[in-house]
Amino acid sequence: MDIATIIGFILGAFFIIFSISMGGPLSWFFEYKSIMIVLGGTLCATMIHYPMNKFINSFRTVKHIIQVKQLSPTDIINKIIELANIARKEGLLALEEAAAQIDDDFLQKGVLLIVDGTDPELVRNILETELAFIEGRHKESQGIFETMATLAPAFGMIGTLIGLIQMLQQLEDPSTIGPAMGVALITTFYGTVLANFLFIPIAGKLKIRSSEEILLKEVMIEGLLSIQAGENPRIIEEKLKAFLAPGLRKNDEQEEEREIEGVGAEA
């Protein structure tokens, strides 16, 4: 669970609503016609821009901004080292049994390719091709929310223009000018809030999630090819640690030191 996303949305909504309530009743900022223009127009224009299946799938990916189910890079490296030790002691064919216990489909597929004796270059090409398609699907979802972030302020301006036109048609009654102008500006407010508080942050968080997943899969590819080449597990570990940020490397080294100290104390 990504607590930062939850806190951001809750506090952001609180600050906006609280600031509005300090200046007057919240009912001033509720106008269903403006909501229909901005939200309805943005969604409909996005459906025109993208095929329906991609439009629907993009909303299914929203759950990933809160849910964090993927393994950490350290977990992946540890798993690959475990596989490397099995391959070194029992041979590559012994990895077939270990592959059945792997939860990640991408890593499992790579292990089975190695077990089948696939040429290393072909293994790399197959996995990198799949990785490219995964990244492409991620970019489609990000692009849809970026498109909505672009369209929402535009439809907010369209709603404002509609409100101004309707206001100019009623200039004979000066008492209607103030409320009509307020309704016109609320539409712009809706478009700006939707773009900057909802669509842009969602697209940004999906982009981060995508980069994290791509990094993990690159670690898997490098580790699997190293196993297939018969490299020493210790060398593989050091090679894969190059993918980690300095802070993660330091934490990993500290955990290893604690484990060594624990083994020494038991002895």
Key words describing this protein structure:
10 helices; disordered C terminus; single chain; elongated; 267 residues; mainly alpha
Task: Outline the structure in words.
The structure is a single chain. With 267 residues, the protein is mainly alpha-helical. The protein has one domain. The chain contains ten helices and no strands. Helix 3 (52-60) packs across helix 7 and helix 4 runs parallel beside helix 8 (177-228). The longest helix has 52 residues, at 177-228. It is elongated. It starts with a helix and ends with a helix. The model is unreliable at 257-267 (pLDDT under 50).
Distance between the termini: 39 Å
Q: Give the helices and strands as they follow along the chain.
A: HHHHHHHHHH
Beta-strand content: under 5%
Q: How many domains comprise the coordinates?
A: 1
Q: Which word captures the global form?
A: elongated
Helix content: over 70%
Number of helical segments with 4 or more residues = 10
Low-pLDDT sequence parts: 257-267
Q: What do the pLDDT scores average to?
A: 85
Question: Which secondary-structure class do the elements indicate?
Answer: mainly alpha
Radius of gyration: 27 Å
Largest sheet: none
Summarize the structure.
With 267 residues, the chain is an all-alpha fold.
Chart the SSEs and their pairings.
Layout: H1 3-23, H2 32-49, H3 52-60, H4 73-90, H5 95-99, H6 105-115, H7 120-168, H8 177-228, H9 233-241, H10 246-266
Helix pairs in contact: 2-7, 2-8, 3-7, 4-8, 4-9, 6-8, 7-8, 8-9
